[in-house]
Each structure stands twice: as C-alpha cells, then as structure tokens.
Amino acid sequence: MIFKFRREEIQPTLDYPSGFIYRPKVPLWIGAEVSGPRRPYLGLLDTGADDTKMSLSVARRLGIKVDKSVPVVFRGLGGDAIGYFGSVVFELRQSPKSWVWTARVAFIRDSESDSEEEQARVTLGHTGFFRYFHVGFDFQRGRAQIRPNRLFVGLPR
Amino acid sequence: MSKKSTRPKKTDAATVEQEPDILPLSLAGKWVAWTNDGMHIVGSGDTIEEAERNAAKNGEAEPMLEFHSFRYRQ
Description:
Chain A is 4% helix and 53% strand. Chain A is mainly beta and 157 residues long.
C-alpha cells in the first residue's frame, strides 16, 4: 500500500516558510475485538517511538480493556506520562487490500495539561506496527510504502 | 548490448496518486472530520461531537477525527 504524506497548513516558521508541513499519517481502523466494530483514526508513522501509543480516551471510546495493574512510564519531549497496555485490533485498508492484526499498545493517561489534540492522537511505533511492516519513506515523492514482513500474522477481515 | 524494458512497472497506480485534502489553516484549533478513508474533509467543530455532527450532516456517519494544531510541531 502506498500512502501520500498529508499536507497540513501551519503558521510559517523559518524551517517551513511555505506554511505547509507534510506528515506521514495513515488512515487505519481500530477496534476492541476481531469480530467487533472498528473506528477510523489517523496514525502517525513514528519510527522513533518504541511503542504504538494512543490516548486512554480512545480506549474508552472503543471499549478496549486496559491492564491498569501494570502502569508504565513513557518519556517524551513534554515530560513523563503514565500509560497502560491493552490489546487492540488494527486494520489497514486501501482498496482492494486489507491487513488486519492484533497488537498490544500503550494507552496514555490523560492529564490536565494535555491538549485536545492528544485525545485522538495515534502514534504507530515499533511494537504493534513497525515490527510487522516494512515501511519505505519517500520524501521526494511525499509518500510512504507499506508492506507486511514475515513477522506479520494477519487475521481474516 | 542489453535491452532495457520500457514497459511501465506495476504499481498501485489507481491509488498511489490520490492525495488527501489539504488541512487548511482556517481550521486551526478545531476538530476536523474526514471521510473514513481519510481523503476528504467533511466537517469541523470546536468539539469532537460537533465535528461528528457536521460530518453526519454531510453524509459521513463514521468520520475520521483529528485536531488541527498549528502552533507547534509534532
């Protein structure tokens, strides 16, 4: 599958004088169970992220059970955040292809300092995503090419 | 002398060149609802719920939602 980078208009900066930024985000469907419903989200391809992460509010929205007995500390630029792991079903689709798989992902606890943006942010990291897919980034053409590797265990759609 | 094939390579040509709508600065600070393939903007709002309602009015019952932050890098 090939996904074009997404073009977003931002306030111009020295590095982005045009006011446009291209982000490698892919549409993917997330659900709690294989046979259950899934909802669409945009996932940022982040090769520097150890884990696939999303907000705990996404888990609440989708009815995903998280294991709160084992809190995990995640360190980011904005400081530390507490997260919990849970199992989700992902589907990456681009007609006529569709890849479905399960993964353990981290759900980051919302804090008062969180921006609204955090509520729907999905970061695709090593566990849960890059472990299963070969991803080629083409910044000249502004696109990412994704294909499963041999560690990928697909599920029926 | 080796002959080089001039046949075009097989690609996902039908889907490759589809480019999503630009996320405009006019929607900065708002929730944006996309068609569920992530290609077109179908609504926006100050809250997730408002963006969802506006998407539903435009025929998208299951939109993809994101918050357009413009002040800082991701």
